[in-house]
Amino acid sequence: MTERVEGHGGELALAALRAHGVREMFTLSGGHVFPLYDAAHRTGFPIYDVRHEQSAVFAAEAVAKLQRRPGLAVLTAGPGVTNGVSGLTSAFFNASPVLVLGGRAPQFRWGSGSLQEMDHLPLVAPVTKHAETVFSADDVPRAVTAALTAALTPHRGPAFLDFPLEAVFSVGDADLPAVTPPAPIEADPDEVAKAAALIAGASRPVIIAGSDVYAGDAVEALRAAAESLQVPVFTNGMGRGALPPEHPLAFAKARRVALKGADVVVVVGTPLDFRLAFGDFGDARVVHVVDAPSQRAGHVEPAASPAGDLRLILTAFAGHPGDRADHADWIAQLRTAEDAAKARDAEEMAAETDPIRPARVYGELRKVLAPDAITIGDGGDFVSYAGKYLEPAQPGSWLDPGPYGCLGTGMGYAMGARVSHPDRQICVLMGDGAAGFSLMDVESLARQRLPVVIVVGNNGIWGLEKHPMRAMYGYDVAADLQPGLRYDKVVEALGGAGETVEKAADLGPALARAFDAGVPYLVNVLTDPSDAYPRSSNLA
C-alpha cells in the first residue's frame, strides 16, 4: 500500500531516507538546510557535525563502505558543497553509495546575487551517478528515491541533490515511492563459462580480489570459488581479509612472485589501474570480473570479462563442471615465497633502531589490534607500510582513500566507523602530512564522545615526494614539515589526549594506553625520515 507523506521539504526528504535504511546524518551547520535538521531533531534522527564539510562526506562514505548501505551528508549551499567535492570524488572512485544533499540559493531570485548562489550541478555531475536540483517540495520523495536507487545500482557510487530555499522550506505532500532493491545484473553465461574454464585449466592461476567483492556481499562466493578451483588469492582495498590470513589459499607477501609466474591472472571487483600495473601481467592471460559492464577495462584486452553480480559469477566458477588442472605445486611454490617474506617482515617489525622505523610501529600494532579492528589509512609513505605489514583478519575492516588517493579522509572515516561500530577498535594510521588535512576534526570526535586511536608516523617530511625528487634532481623543494611537531598536543587542546614516542621500546605501552583511553588519543611516533617506502610496490 502506498504511503502518503506530508510536511516541509526536510520532513519529506527524511521520510524517503528512512525508507532506504539511512540512519544518521553528517553535516556542518548551514542555514540553507535548516529544514533537514528540523526534521531530524524532532524525530530523534542522529546528527553528527564536523568542522569541515569534506569530513562529513568522508564520514558518510565510511558508513556506506562498512555497512553496505547509503551514507548521508548534508551540506549548505556554495562553499559547503564545493568543500565536499573531494569527498564525492573519492566516493565515485570507490563505488560508495553516498548521498549528498545540498542547500541552494532561492530559485525565485536566481541571478540576483543571493548569498552563496551558484549552480552546483556542473561541478558534481562528472563525479556522481545522479545529480539533480529539486524545485518543488512535492517532488522531494521522488527525487531522493531516484538518487538512492542510482547510488545502489551496480556499479555503485555517489548521488547529489540540491534544494532551492523555497523548495526545502515549503510544505508539500506526495506518495512515498516504494523501495525496490536493484535487480542483480545477470552476466553472459558463455562469458562466465569461458572464464571458469580458463581458470580451471591454468597451470599457475592467481586471483586478486578487491573492494567490490565486499561491497557486493560476495566474500563467501569468492572463498567457495577459490577452494573449488584451488587458486591462490591476493586482495586489495576492502577485499583484504576476504580469506583470513591463516587460510591455505590466502597470500599477501608473494604477490610479485605470483604475478611474475602466473599464466592466468583473475582480477575480481577492482579496476586494472596503477595498483595492478594497469592490467599488464606479461604473458599471462587476464580474466577481469566486474559488477557492471561499465567497469570493463578499455585499455586492455582481457581473455574473458564477465560483468554482473559477483556472487552469481563466483558461484558459477565454484560449480565449474569441466576438468581442473592440479595447482598443488604452484600453491606450494607461492607458500615458500610467502613464508620467506613473512620471516623478513618479522625481522623488520622487531627492529630496535633509533630513530624508529615505520615497520616497528606496525609490528607493535599487530600485537594490540583485535581481529575485528577497523584500520583506516590516511597518508602516503607511512600508510604504504601499513599495506605491507598489516593483514586484516576480516573483510570490510580496512579503509583507505582508494585509487583517487585523496588525503584528509582520516577523521571523517573515523567518525563513520565509530558510529557504525561502537564496540570495535577504530585505529587511524596517519602520516604527518595527512594530519594537516583533517586533524581539527578531532574536536568533532571529542565533543560527540566518539573515541578513536590515531597513530601518526611523524618523519617531518612529505616522504613520497622528498626522496623521489632528490633522486631525480639532486635536491628537493616544498617537501619539508616541522620535525618533531607535537600533534599529540594539538589533540589534547581539542579535547582528546596523546603522547609522543621517540623510542621503539615505548611503542607498546603507548598503544595500550591509547586503546584504553576512551577519548580520541593520538600516538605521535617520531620515525626515521631516511626510511622511504618504494613507490613501485603498489601495495595499496
UniProtKB/TrEMBL annotation:
Gene Ontology molecular function terms on file: acetolactate synthase activity; flavin adenine dinucleotide binding; magnesium ion binding; thiamine pyrophosphate binding
Reported cofactor(s): thiamine diphosphate
Family under the similarity heading: Belongs to the TPP enzyme family.
Keyword Cell wall biogenesis/degradation applies: no
Record protein name field: Acetolactate synthase-1/2/3 large subunit
Domain Thiamine pyrophosphate enzyme central: 192-316
Domain Thiamine pyrophosphate enzyme N-terminal TPP-binding: 9-121
Keywords from the named record: Thiamine pyrophosphate
Transmembrane segments: none
GO biological process: isoleucine biosynthetic process; L-valine biosynthetic process
PANTHER family in the record: 2-HYDROXYACYL-COA LYASE 2 (PTHR18968:SF166), THIAMINE PYROPHOSPHATE ENZYMES (PTHR18968)
Sequence ranges assigned to domain Thiamine pyrophosphate enzyme TPP-binding in this UniProt record: 378-525
Gene Ontology terms: cellular component: acetolactate synthase complex
